[in-house]
Amino acid sequence: MIDPLEKLVVSAVEIDRELLATTLADLVQIDKDSGEIRLTRKSVTLSKKLQILTYFLARKAAKALSLVPDEPISPKELSSKLGIGGGPLRGQLAVFSKERLIASEKGKYWIPNYAIEQVKVLLEQARGKEK
């Protein structure tokens, strides 16, 4: 007999690739040769907060596709990629950390797998406001 509680057990390492793909649909493009992430027209209309989260998710996808060596990214690199000043970016990263939307280690940040669904909801809410 299978323990019904087993349904509650998840892996922190495995990602829901379908959830990640549907969340990022129409928001990013990932260059298959360089792993470079490009925000689409739809994503550049999002708030800076949501652009940051979108970039983090795209980085997760690029890592899952083995297009980049590591998922975590430094604030300096993220600032350069998104064109957001270091001060405002660090402030937003602190808010995300407090909300448990991102994790950090050794000065680099990423979205934990458990937070993908939360970010998807935030993006859907923003898209709903656009309509």
Q: Total number of β-strand segments?
A: 4
Summarize the biggest pleated sheet.
2 strands, antiparallel
Shape: globular
Percent of residues in beta strands? 5-15%
CATH superfamily: Winged helix-like DNA-binding domain superfamily/Winged helix DNA-binding domain
Query: Structural class per helix/strand content?
Result: mainly alpha
CATH architectural group: Orthogonal Bundle
What's the pLDDT, averaged over the residues? Answer: 92
> Number of helical runs?
6
Distance between the termini: 49 Å
**Side-by-side strand order of the widest sheet:** 1-2
Uncertain stretches: none
The CATH C-level name is: Mainly Alpha
Provide a short characterization of the protein structure.
The protein has one domain: Winged helix-like DNA-binding domain superfamily/Winged helix DNA-binding domain (Arc Repressor Mutant, subunit A, Orthogonal Bundle), CATH 1.10.10.10. Helix content is 50%, strand content 9%. It has helices at 17-24, 41-44, 48-64, 75-82, 86-98, 116-130; strands at residues 28-30, 37-39, 103-105, 108-110.
Structure description:
With 131 residues, the chain is mainly alpha-helical. The protein has one domain (16-130): Winged helix-like DNA-binding domain superfamily/Winged helix DNA-binding domain (Arc Repressor Mutant, subunit A, Orthogonal Bundle). Helix content is 50%, strand content 9%. It is built from six helices and four strands; from the N terminus they run αββααααββα. The protein has helices spanning 17-24, 41-44, 48-64, 75-82, 86-98, 116-130, and strands at residues 28-30, 37-39, 103-105, 108-110. Strands 1-2 form a two-stranded antiparallel sheet. Strand 3 and strand 4 (108-110) form a beta hairpin. Helix 1 crosses helix 3 (48-64) and helix 3 crosses helix 6 (116-130).
